[in-house]
Amino acid sequence: MNRDLHEPELKRHLAPVKAPEELWDRVRSGKVSYREPRPVAMMWRRAAVAVAAIVVVAGVTVWLNRPLSNEELAVRALNHSLDQMEFRSENLAELRTWVKAGTGLDIPLTGRAAPSVRLIGAHVVKAGVIRRGSPAVEISYRVGDSDAALVISKAPLQGDGRHAFVRSGSYHGANFQSWTMRGQMYTIASVGASADARVGCMLCHSPGAPRPLEN
Amino acid sequence: MVLDVSQRDVNHGVNQCEAIVACQNGDDEAFRVLFETHKDRVYSIALRYVGDSTAAMDIAQETFLKLLSSIQQFRGDASFESWLYRLVVNCCLDYHRKRRRFLPLLDDALDEALDLFRAPNDSALHDLLREEQAERVQQLVAQLPEEQRMVVVLRYTEDLSYEEIADLLGCRRGTVASRLNRAHKALERRLSHLRKVSQ
After folding, report:
1. Is residue A59 domain-shared with residue A83, that is, in the same domain?
2. What is the C-alpha to C-alpha distance for residues A200 and A175, in angstroms, rounded to an integer?
3. Residue A6: left if φ>0, alpha if ψ -120 to 50, beta else—which one?
4. Looking at beta carbons, which residues of chain A come within 8 Å of B32?
C-alpha cells in the first residue's frame, strides 16, 4: 500500500471537528443526575445506614452488659471511690461478717492485716453481673503505695484449702492473679509503685512478705 | 477558586493547572473551563471512532462525567491531556463492547464477509461518495476492527506519534505500527474507489 497517498486523505477526512453546543447541556444534565441519586436509591441508602446504626448500638449495648469476669471486676474495683462502697471500715473482722451476711461468701481473713495494709471498703456485685450468676464482693485496700483489690465469687469446683492457681497477667495497666480455694474464686489486682500483683496477698497473709502460692 | 471561562485561552497552561486544582476542590466553573478546553478533542475522537454523531455525543458526555467523578485521582504524574485521552479511549472501547453485546452481527469477525456485500457499484457509489465523501471515509474507519480503529483515530484525528499512541494504549510501538499497517490495507481498496470518484 502506498501510505503517503492515503495519509493526507485520512488526515483530511478524519480531521478534528467542533463539538455540538448541546454537549454542555448533556454533560450538565448527566452531572446533576450523577450527583443526585434517585429517590429509591436514596431511600435504600438511608435504610442501610439506619440498619447499620441499629446493629452498632445493639452491639455496644450487648458488650456493655456482658457478664464481667473476676479480673475485670478486680481492675474496676481499683478505681472505685468511697461513694461506691456500701461497706467502709478498716476492720477485717467486720468485713468478713458483712460479706458473709450479704453474699454467703466466707473470706478467710485472720482479723489483722500487715501494718502496710489499709482496708478502704467493699462493694457487693449483684448476681447476674458476673458470668456464674451468683453475687461477688469487691474489696478495696492499699498496700504501701499500691492500690489493691480482691474479688471473691463462687467457683464451680469445691476444692480444698490450697490455692489452685487459675491465671495471672495484666489488664488495663493492672496486674492480676486468680486462684480457687474451697469453692470460691479469688482474684487480686494491684497497680502502683509495686508491679507485683502478690502485694495484694498481704490482706490475708500477715505479717511479712507474701508466701509462694501453693498449687 | 472561581475561574472565568473567557480567560481560558489567555494562558492555557497556567489556567489549566488552576482549573484542575479548582475542579478537584469541587469548583463547577473550573470544570466548565476544562470542558471548553477539551470538548472538541473529546468529541472528535468519539465521532471518528464510532462514525455516528449521536453515539459520539453519548461517549463525549460519558467521558466528561468520568472526568468529573475521577479527577481527584489525577495526580499530575502524566499530562492532563494524556489522562484525558485514556478516559475517552476507555469510553470508546466500553461503548464498542456494549454495542457488540447487543448487535453481534456487527462483530469485527464478520466485517470481511460484509465487505462482499459492500462491493462498489460504480454509478451508485459515485453519487454517494461525491456528496458524502467525508462521511463515508468515517464510516469505513468505523468498520475497522476495534484495535486498528483506535490507532487510526489517534494517529489521524489527534496527530499523535507512534510512541504516544503506544503509551496511551499500553502496548509497544511495533504493535501500533502493525495495527496501523493492517488498517491501511483494509482501507486501501475502498479508499481507491473514493479517490476515483473525487477526481
Report:
1. no
2. 10
3. alpha
4. 24
A4 close to B (CB below 8 A): no
Q: What is the CATH number of domain B5-102?
A: 1.10.1740.10
Report the distance separating Cα A188 and Cα A121, nearest Å.
Answer: 15
Give the pLDDT score at B93. Answer: 87
Structural domain boundaries of chain B? 5-102, 104-198
Work out the pLDDT band at A14, boundaries 50, 70, 90: confident
**Looking at the whole model, is its pTM more than 0.90?**
no
Residues of B in contact with A31 (CB under 8 A): 65, 68
pLDDT band at residue B199 under the 50/70/90 scheme:
low
- Max mean pLDDT among B57-61, B91-95, B98-102 falls in B57-61
3-state helix, strand, coil in chain A (%, to 5): 40, 25, 40
B138 contacts A1? CB cut-off 8 A: no
The conformation of residue A155, written as its DSSP 8-state character, comes to -
Contacts of B71 in chain A (CB under 8 A): none
* Contact yes or no for A178/A151 (Cβ under 8 A): no
Considering only alpha carbons, which residue of chain B is nearest residue A1? B185
Whether omega before A37 lies within 30 degrees of 0, making that bond cis, reads no
Q: What is the C-alpha separation between A96 and A111, in angstroms, rounded?
A: 9
| Strand, helix or coil for residue A178 | strand
**Identity of the residue in A14, A20, A31 whose CB atom sits nearest the CB atom of B65:** A31
Beta bridge partners of A196: none
Q: Which of A63, A83, A105 is the last residue of a domain?
A: A63
